[in-house]
Automatic annotation (TrEMBL):
Matches recorded under SUPFAM superfamilies: PLP-binding barrel
Pfam family, one: Ala_racemase_N
Region Disordered, annotated ranges: 1-20
InterPro entries, per database record: Ala_racemase_N, PLP-binding_barrel, PyrdxlP_homeostasis
Keyword Hydrolase: no
Family: Belongs to the pyridoxal phosphate-binding protein YggS/PROSC family.
Transmembrane segments: none
Physiological role: Pyridoxal 5'-phosphate (PLP)-binding protein, which is involved in PLP homeostasis.
Domain (Alanine racemase N-terminal) ranges: 26-262
Protein name stated in the entry: Pyridoxal phosphate homeostasis protein
Length: 265
């Protein structure tokens, strides 16, 4: 940062250009969300989670400055130091962290330290590990108010047999639709966890809107047993509009806000 007496450095100029670039991407995505909601005849708009994987903590700080309240990460090794750096820079003004990737049970104790939401709960063992980790954290930090961890059930909405899925796509992350009620009930019953709803990623090679409508139907069923579990997290850069039409309450957008990612990640 330059003080007023200093001339701006090339680094300052690059930092400002990056902020402008993100602001433009964010404005375009917000406009797409608003338009899609309008065209779908919706009175509400889905919440935006900006997916920051592969992008640095500085970009998360920029997003917070632009009013972004929630960011998503899919790898603990990457999210942990990034969340720490953002907390150091912003304190209580840091956005909420949504964990959106495959999570090993032995990483649950890390995730509960920074994540407000785990969107990718796909098996009872993971729910149990998150619950144990959260309860332990409360015991170890009696002076700290640790809210319940919101959990979404990630659903594999792809009906195709593994051998019928496109080349390179093995079994997807996510619980089978028929396993959702039991997993949801387990989450709802575990101490320290709150069942928020459902999440999915549109399977490649299928009509995304049909997949999203499938998740919406599962969500309707879920709310009969759990009326507050109303979150439907679906829609990424390429299929945002289809998700909004199908009733997404939350979209997860990365590249259309922050730019293309390197191939890995
Ligand atoms: C990367 C990722 C996103 C965002 O994808 P974009 O195409 O960059 O918008 C959303 N959800 C999950 C689970 C992801 O891993």
């Amino acid at each position: 940062m330059s003080t007023p007496e200093q001339h701006p450095t090339p680094d300052d100029a690059a930092a400002e250009a990056r902020t402008r670039e993100i602001a433009a991407g964010l404005a375009a995505v917000r406009e797409r969300i608003a338009r899609a909601a309008r065209e779908a005849g919706r009175a509400d708009e889905p919440a935006l989670v900006v997916v920051t994987k592969t992008h640095p903590a500085e970009d998360v700080v920029r997003l917070a400055g632009l009013g972004v309240a929630a960011v998503g990460e899919n790898r603990d090794q990457e999210a942990r130091p990034k969340a720490a750096a953002v907390a150091e820079a912003l304190g209580d003004a840091a956005p909420r962290w949504h964990f959106i990737g495959q999570l090993q049970t032995n990483k649950a104790k890390h995730a509960v330290r920074y994540a407000s939401v785990v969107e990718s709960v796909d098996r009872p063992e993971l729910a149990e590990a998150l619950s144990r980790a959260l309860v332990l954290r409360r015991e170890r930090e009696p002076g700290v108010e640790v809210p319940d961890l919101e959990c979404l059930v990630q659903v594999d909405v792809d009906d195709r047999a593994d051998e019928d899925r496109p080349e390179g796509i093995g079994p997807r992350g996510g619980a089978a639709p028929e396993d959702v009620p039991a997993l949801a009930a387990a989450i709802a019953a575990l101490p320290g966890l709150r069942l928020g709803g459902l999440m999915c990623v549109a399977p490649r090679g299928l009509d995304p809107e049909a997949s999203f409508r499938r998740l919406a139907a599962l969500g309707e069923e879920l709310r009969r047993a759990h009326p507050d579990a109303s979150t439907l997290s679906m829609g990424m850069s390429a299929d945002l509009e289809a998700a909004v039409r199908a009733g997404a309450t939350q979209v997860r957008i990365g590249s259309d806000v922050l730019g293309a990612r390197p191939a890995v990640g």
